[in-house]
Amino acid sequence: MNTFFKTIAATFVLVTGFSTTPTLAADAPQARIIIVDFVRVTTESLVGKDVASQIESHRINLDNRANQISNELKAEQEELVRKQEMLKQKLVTQEVFEAEVREFNQKRQNAELEIRQKNQQLGRAAQQVRTEMERTVRPIVMKVMEEKKANIVMDSGILYHNAGGMDVTTEVIDRLNTAMSSYKVQMPE
Predict the structure, then answer these.
(1) What is the pLDDT of residues 62-120, one digit of tens each?
(2) Do 21 and 40 fall into the same domain?
(3) The pTM is what?
(4) Which residue among 35, 149, 151, 174 is buried most deeply as judged by most CB within 10 Å?
(5) Residue 126 belongs to some domain of the structure
């Protein structure tokens, strides 16, 4: 074997930890795989539906608040345009007009900050929910894995094709429904 190919083979073994010799493959345990569609677990379980409803409710409230702020700012901006006309007619002083512009800009910045913070809070709440669901789903999947004598769990989202009979998603959903049917979404401060 040429040294170039020996170097490549040695690098492959070093980087991957796999040998190019077939004897190690014979020593490896036989793969016993179960498949779980984690998207279905999240969307079809009782807790997943409960949480999605709560998150959507928070999102709607946030959208309503953003629209309310936007309308208030739009009205104030229109008032500033009128005041600008009054300034041209010398019905209002430059100092008064500039003070109102500064006040408006501060309100706008505060509104943007409020909406950004509420979006971040919602994102943190959603992450907390995912973490809690994962804490509950993991032992369920491990128990199913043990019962099926599997040594690999694969997410159906990464599979191209399977022979069937390995998907345990419905069983995982049923067990999750028993273990955790709801979860109160807490909006962090």
Answers:
(1) 999 999 999 999 999 999 888 888 878 888 888 988 999 999 999 999 999 999 999 99
(2) no
(3) 0.71
(4) 35
(5) yes
